[in-house]
## 1
Amino acid sequence: MNQTQKKVLRIIEDLKEHLSYLKLFGFQEIPVEIPSLENFKNDVSKKPLTNMSLTLSEIKEELGDCRRCKLFSTRTHIVFGVGNKNADIVFVGEGPGQEEDKQGVPFVGMAGQKLTDIIEKGMGLKRSDVYICNIVKCRPPNNRDPEKDEIDACSSFLEKQIKAINPKVIVALGKPASSTLLGRNVAITRERGTWHSFQGYQVMLTFHPAYLLRFYTEENRRLVWEDMKKALSAI
Ligand code: URA
């Protein structure tokens, strides 16, 4: 039984004890305020209801010293993810680069600086407000695209991270992240700026920050800003 399940069990037991206590004092029923239920419904309307998800630390523990794919043999650090465990927005990138592999933290190299600028200067959030992770947790050699077997070996961890955070929006950065989340080949230049769904979570597709670094045009900046405004409107 995991920590969340234990917590729920404790709450049920406390509730049972409390109800028996009330019964002892002659209570036959418990008043329920309907408006508060309505508020609850409204509050969660943009999020799928998760059943017992693991916590991020439990997921990290399960990942352990991962050797589920060949990337383990060339990595320095596993790059699990960073940020607010209750974030409304989760950014999903492709895979760690050289600097990320060295530090064990996602998006800390040049593409990371661009992403941080998008989040902080563009969206007006703090980097620590959001959660940032990748479809693969170990660096592909020479920054090549992650291969299918590597993505497959890592995908259950990404899925568990998303369920643990339960965000309102996922932003998929670039083609590999978008294709992984949607389970099909995504044509990012055509499909960026459109809404999709991953297991009930809203997904906004946009360019990878490394693409912006390579093709730093007014038009590309404007397009990413349009996409981020859509993501912001959903939180
Ligand atoms: N590019 C990515 O996709 N992820 C990182 O963490 C860094 C660069």
## 2
Amino acid sequence: MSEIMNVANIFGENVFNDSVMQERLPKKVYKELKRTIQEGKELEPSIADVVAHEMKEWAIEKGATHYSHWFQPLTGATAEKHDAFISAPKSDGKVLMEFSGKALIKGESDASSFPSGGLRATFEARGYTAWDCTSPAFIKKDATGEGAILYIPTAFCSYTGEALDQKTPLLRSMEAINKQTLRLIRLFGNTTAQKVTPSVGAEQEYFLVDREKYLKRKDLVFTGRTLFGAMPPKGQELDDHYFGAIRERIALFMKDVNEELWKLGVSAKTQHNEAAPAQHELAPIYAQCNVAVDHNQLVMETLKQVAYRHNLHCLLHEKPFAGVNGSGKHNNWSLTTDDGVNLLDPGKTPHENIQFLLILACVLRAVDRHAELLRESAADVGNDHRLGANEAPPAIISVYLGAQLEDVLSQLISTGSATHSIKRERLETGVNTLPDFAKDATDRNRTAPLAFTGNKFEFRMVGSRDSVAASTIVLNTIVAESFADACDYLEAQEDFSMGVHDLIKKYASEHQRIVFSGNGYSKEWVKEAERRGLPNIATMVEAIPYLVTDKTVELFERFGVFTRAELESRAEIQYETYAKVINIESRSMIDIASKHIIPAVIKYITSLATSINQVKEACDVVDVSVQTELLQESSNLLADTRKALKELIELTEQASSMKRGKEQAEFYQKEVVPVMQALRTAVDKLEMIVNKEMWPMPSYGDLLFEV
Ligand code: ADP
Ligand code: MG
């Protein structure tokens, strides 16, 4: 019989968390470290030495031989370099296990191979990693499953201090919103809170496919998505997978994922089947945003690793399959004080909660002012297939508030004050044995990019493979700006109550256009949004310029989150990433079409022609019109395929010889992508004709329904 898992016992067992620190560190050292963590004070070298020593002892007991500064460069993935704990051999040839405070706090890394967008030339290769002590260190098994490594979450900067990663600006944005929110709540008489932190809960969607089949799909192997593939007879139209019973193979996988994550201190909580066949979701309990960002990276890595052990493959791409839903990541965002108050909680009677109403009005203003930037934060090559299609939120940013808050806002706007809140109703089931529930005050609207869901905002645009850092940085900073502007105004008012009242009304009226509760997927909304003057940015390449507008630069520089140079470098990196990804996709298509599909179709056509001849030879009055028709049809499609292929080869060559940057990215988007589509269209039609045994790769049906 298998052992029964006790979650409470294993939770966090591989994390150097508060209880381990308390147990292992001398009291004074523990206190100093806590102060550093809580107040952001610098850590004394002598203290760091003691912490490093204890961390090393703990790690060695758990089987670790190496440590690694773990960071998030702008590749979307995490990076690590392992260093053994050993010292230089002594004269007797023996080594000691060593780990200094200096090695804990600061690492040096050859940064030249990570994207820097022109911030750093290759000859200035020095990059530094700096310990983010607010996100705990942890131990993970290495790829062999036998060794273990101590991971230290770090931020990654260039020699001159520019951010080369996701974490540095995230930490900066946390400082900005902390400062401005404290200012705001002080005005409302809060004297106790010392710190305000954004909390994030990142829901993660993913697909699981059988590994053997995956390996036969070179498009999945090279690009993470299918570049060809006719629709199977069944898709997701019956909605029978969504929230359906989880099958054994998947359940075993999820069990292992949970166990691994719990050991790493990631509070994996919810799991269910998603809308598309073979699609699933995992959500952890929310955490402080930098920890949540790290944890989401661990979730993605763990899904991949555990899938491998189960002979499955986890697809994190935003759109692995055309024709069924893609995958996203919901960023649930709220603001929490260190005395435990969620500032986005409206309470039972929001109309009386003036502080909440001001915060809400500020969020609306922030989102309306910087809608383009928020949209950009979710821009990702794979996400172009989702946003604006009929599944994910549309590419137009809007906010869903729900009936209760919308009502309060409209009272405020029309009469200048809100006097009542729509009550939560009882949900009557009509069955005596079922209890009646109090309904939530807000229903859900799955089509809104940003939805208020009770006590948090849920930003639904992020791509499944993307880090949640970018959107969190934007949310933190744009809200910090509106708080700062509100405080500037309120601190100068003699009558605070009047001032708040006026400001809520002003912000709510000026930015009401961003609030929308209808169907965000509808064509009418596109027109209505245009009438309201809301931006509709369909693609990544169109979104990137909003990273470097004067408005954006001013915003980020005001709060010390990004410099202009850092933003420009990020825009460069994004153009390059777009070009590189499409280049890989198009070259993969060229490879697969030339070496696998065209030969298979020729084989099919030849065998068809041969069999027509044979039939005719056997009996020349037999009707071979069906065979002849198929021969004609497949030959025509083969010609279309070849034509599109040749065109794609030429365009891809032309594109890849262009100078890197905006123009190149635009060329890929406008010239290369449509021809990729044309090639796919012809090939997918052929897949519907050619014998299954002759088709060179597993079909959508094989991949999606035979996991
Ligand atoms: P919903 O049903 O609205 O999606 P859930 O309770 O399932 O909400 O939560 C979805 C995600 O939001 C989870 O990761 C959860 O931990 C997170 N979450 C819940 N409350 C908050 C909050 N106050 N701040 C940030 N995230 C939160
Ligand atoms: Mg949700």
## 3
Amino acid sequence: MKRLLLAIAVIFAVACSKTTSNQTNEVAIIPQPLSLSKHNNAFVVLPSTTIVCDVEEFAPIVKYSQEYMKVGVATKVPKNNYISISLDKLLAEEEYHLAVSNDSVQIVAGGYGGAFNGVQTLFQLLPSEVYTKQMRLPAVVKGCNVKDRPKFAYRGFLLDVARTFMTKENVLRYIDYIAYHKINKLHWHLTDNQGWRIEIKSHPNLAKVGGFRGGDSPINAALGKWDEKYGGYYTQEEISEVVEYAKVRNIEIIPEIDLPGHSGALAAIYPEVLCKKADGTPRNTGIVVCATKESNYLLLEEILAEVCALFPSKHFHIGGDEVNMSQWKSCPDCSAWLKKNGYTDGHKLEDMFIGRIQTILAKYGKTPSVWNEAAFGGGLSKEAWVHGWKSPKVCKQVMAEGYPTIFMPQQFFYFDMRQSEHENGAIWGGCFDIRKVYSFDFAKEGFTPEEVAQVKGFEAAAWSEVFLSQGGDKSIDFIEYQTFPRLCALAELAWGKNGSGEWQEFHNRLYKSHYDRMADMGLNFRITPPNVKYENGLLSIEKIDNSAVYYRMEGSDKRLSYRGAIRTSQPGRYLFWAEYRGAKSPEVAHSSQYKTIKPKVTLTSSIPDQPKHGYHRVADYYMSMRTSRTYKEGDWFLFEFEEPVECRSIEFVTGSHAVPSRLITKGYLEVSHDGKTFHHVAELNYGRAKLLNPKPIKAARIVATSDDVPGSQLRICSPIIYPKW
Ligand code: TNX
């Protein structure tokens, strides 16, 4: 009788789990386990199912599992209908075995990490609804046996809350997202030029003042937010809460206080940390901490001691990246130090600085982690973890120095980079989507198996300079869009890229099973766009997954369902995208959509240009010219075309394109059709103004209506002009 009831329950649950379009009976785990065998038995989670676990250390995991599965706990192993989590010390700490039978799910783990990993695999065997914490019961656990462990001990994600502040609640959300993917390190970038996000009780102004930008803050606002004061920081209590939350989820947080460069926020509060100017007078702007000022080491020790106490990790990231040596070289004290020691290379100062900080950290039981720039001085302890970000080649050099190396070359793992040419995001490190992340291959990058065995792990970075600009309050959604699903590929690499290693096989698991999971996690993830084909007058879509394809006509918001090839002589007018349960791909179109024209044009301005990037380059449709100073109210830029320009749209852009900065925050655009009289046609929005179907334009002028913050220069771009169809 019991068996019969169970069979009915299974049928019922399988039927329920089919409610969303993709859910299959496939066992499709991301990251792919080391060994997995499917079988035809299945366990059914019922309201009466219990979790049994007699390992005290695993208690937080039991509680965590209950939040998702809404089942009870048992103190003794029942006859059937249970999920057990137990310890086998012969397994490695993060290793686990998971066996599904009709009667039970048994997870045996080598330690806390293994038990947590086992539970994550269990979640992926359940309907994706488990991630909503409202899974309907009965729910089927697909039948399989898993023996699994990660290849790399370090599977990390960097969250940059210094550039774009993220509330504590959002940080916790991120910890959940990454934990679902068996990521076990959060590299928390807490300070940078643009903000100081951690409360320091002995120096309260660091966070209270340095945690905010704009308005009366000494730290400039970003992009289009000049007047408004905004930002935030975490109190020490909040930091501890986040650390604890992460710990339950098998995530170790490595804090970063970025030194001696990237210290603009620190210097905004304590300008005395900066070097002197060449004439000996104090500097009042800059981003590099003076390496020879004794008082700096006292101040830094006070700060670092507090941060050390808040994070249980033995590892403490102290930065070391992108130090602008010119500030040290022009400092009389720093240059005297170099001279006295017979050096000319400013890096010697960085080595000395890192060495001093290393000594301070040692007092508090910590080992430094650094960016790759700081790995070649010789003084850094060989226990230090080095984050290789420049390129795979630099990672190799770091490894040759004998350091445990974390791979995060920007060309593969910088998720602030845009995912295709016409999307938002940065570009300097590359332009790539999940497929490229997944393609990272040690052999192709010239690593021997012996070297691979020495790799500590992988890390993806969500640098956030560009995020704020991409939609204000929506910036959190944009971080998700940039991170997922690329992070799924990183998780798979860091786990060991088990399985075939073929993109298609991974992609199948991703869209057939993991899209639903990400939707239920509540993620705003990116769907890989379909391919657009145009042949013999027929415009069609090549689907690569089973998301629905829609399109719209250029200039219209009306969403149309794509039902089959479209006959047209103007393929560029159609913009397609794919959608799956609220998640979207970027819009894609035939290449003619993106063709621009380059009519003859000149540029003049009330502000002088920089010779190397002079205004004459406007005629070459050079991307961005530079001014020799910032702007004041009334400053203008005038574009004059040789012939009136006919076009379907024209856009005028100030600021650098990838990261909207150095732009005119407030101003307007006026155009002239005869070259004499001008009409005000648009206000600048994030430094830009776009006109649709304008009358032929002979000249256009951008006029600033506010002053910029002092000290910076401006970028001004060639107009972007799309021809008439
Ligand atoms: C370089 S990576 C940086 C970061 C930026 C990033 C933007 C590294 C150590 N420094 O400060 O945010 O590029 O892509």
